[in-house]
Amino acid sequence: FLTKCMGIPAGSKVKIASIPLIIRDTCQTNVSKKMIGFLRGVIDNDFYLIKDKNGLELGGWFASKDLVKDLYESFIKLALHPKLRSDTKYFDKRLKKWIVRYCVRIRRKDDIRKWFKLIGTNNFKLYNRYENWANGCSRT
Fold first, then answer.
1. What stretch of H or E contains 124?
2. In the structure, how many helices (H) and strands (E) does the chain have?
3. Is 68 helix (H, G, I), strand (E, B) or coil?
4. Mind listing the pLDDT tens digit for each residue in 69-78?
5. How far is Cα of residue 59 from the mean position of the Cα atoms in its chain?
6. Among 13-17, 63-67, 115-119, whose mean pLDDT is lowest?
């Protein structure tokens, strides 16, 4: 089913993953409900939400350049302002070797608020971090 209907290739998908065509084709000019569900799933499983001295950052690191490009384009369709980091070398202590990875992230306060309003999350940890940040921002 996943190979024939969803267009997901058999075998390891780490470096060739992308948004499945059946979902990507539902939103040529804007983002469909299927795409919103897909994005929520990716964010819930693979993204981080951190606070640093410059504010909040919602992002994710991936081995697949195509997946990061697809996520970036989807965020643009949502009128967000994502940033990309490409070809970043990283030493994986578990594998004991250097790997190349790609990142897509959102840093604007308004974009992060919009994300949680439009897409939301089912990840308790992400939601709590966002709520703590949002409540702290509303007091200033």
1. helix 124-138
2. 5, 4
3. helix
4. 999 988 998 8
5. 6
6. 13-17
Q: How far is CA 90 from the centre of its chain?
A: 19
pLDDT of residue 96: 92
Q: How many residues are recorded in the chain?
A: 140
Q: Are 78 and 43 in contact (CB under 8 A)?
A: no
What's the CA dihedral at 130, 131, 137, 140 to 10 degrees? -160
Tell which residue, 58, 119, 66, has the closest CA to residue 83.
58
The answer to whether residue 14 scores a pLDDT higher than 80 is no
Task: Say how far apart CA 133 and CA 54 lie, in whole Å.
Answer: 13
Q: What is the pLDDT of residue 108?
A: 93
Whole-structure pTM value: 0.80
The single-letter DSSP state of residue 127 is H
Q: Which pLDDT belongs to residue 103?
A: 93
Rounded mean pLDDT, 88-94: 89
Q: Would you say 49 and 33 are in contact if contact means Cβ atoms under 8 Å apart?
A: no
Query: Are the beta carbons of 82 and 105 closer than 8 angstroms?
Result: yes
